[in-house]
Design goal:
alpha/beta; Ubiquitin-like (UB roll); Rossmann fold; 9-stranded mixed β-sheet; elongated
Length: 267
């Protein structure tokens, strides 16, 4: 065998060996690559919500995390799964907006969303139902005495929606929501036990019930006052005056105070 033939054989042998090594390496790496982009069936998918509000406890978030993990699936290439998760979150009733559901690695999902903001509790025969600042029903009902310290709305004329995320119908209910927003930041807020909207349909009148069983006749919804009615800002100033003088918005404890007129009368 000539020297040239020997050299050619050596190069052919080396190329063959390299090809075999590459094939073995590729065959070993493909399963590893697949494993890196697919969570194993037994692996737990971790779901993180960006900027979740403080009122959402870990036990509140857990069902939503389970929902996302179930709908998204384990495949990093399953865009439809992420879309299903996004749609399921919006359908839960807890969100104003779900901007994006995205994967971080093979076993973590991140959710960029805006949660609804609870503002009040609507009371009916079935319990106290959580409501957001837009008047939408949230998916939470409390037994009396177990609800968070939010404004309670009494006397709604129409029944609650059939599913979470829907607007609770009725102008009286929306007026109660506006009232809850107005008093929510007042220093005497804890002295109000409920907003009563029971006379709104007939008289366009709201009332505040205090923890001392006093009825404060408010009048029309904030911003919708009649021409002869005291504006909301003046009513708030009067309640602040009573608080400064007596320590309470119901003053010395009359059964009823009419805040809607210039001359405030008690009964």
């Amino acid at each position: 065998m000539s020297e040239r033939t020997k050299a050619t054989s050596i190069w052919v042998g080396a190329a063959t060996t390299l090809a075999i090594l590459l094939l073995i390496t590729f065959g070993w790496s493909v399963p590893s690559l697949r494993q890196s982009v697919h969570a194993s069936p037994g692996d737990r998918i971790e779901v993180a919500f960006l900027d979740s509000p403080s009122w959402m406890t870990p036990s509140d978030l857990e069902p939503l995390q389970t929902l996302v993990a179930r709908e998204a699936g384990v495949s990093a290439y399953d865009r439809q799964g992420l879309e299903r998760a996004q749609s399921a979150l919006m359908g839960s009733g807890w969100f104003n907006e779900v901007r994006q559901v995205r994967r971080i690695g093979s076993s973590e999902i991140e959710v960029d969303a805006t949660f609804a903001d609870p503002i009040a509790l609507v009371v009916d025969a079935q319990g106290e139902h959580l409501l957001d600042s837009n008047g939408r029903l949230l998916p939470r009902t409390y037994a009396p005495g177990t609800s968070p310290k939010l404004t309670r709305i009494l006397g709604a004329s129409l029944p609650r929606p059939t599913r979470a995320g829907q607007l609770w119908p009725g102008a009286d209910l929306l007026a109660g929501v506006e009232m809850a927003k107005l008093i929510g930041t007042q220093r005497w807020r804890s002295q109000v036990s409920a907003v009563d909207v029971g006379e709104f349909r007939t008289r366009q009148t709201l009332a505040l019930l205090t923890t001392n069983q006093c009825r404060l006749i408010w009048g029309r919804a904030p911003g919708s006052e009649a021409s002869a009615e005291v504006p909301a800002a003046q009513k708030l100033r009067y309640l602040d005056l009573l608080t400064n003088q007596y320590g309470r918005i119901d003053g010395a404890g009359p059964q009823s105070i009419d805040l809607s007129v210039d001359y405030v009368g008690s009964h």
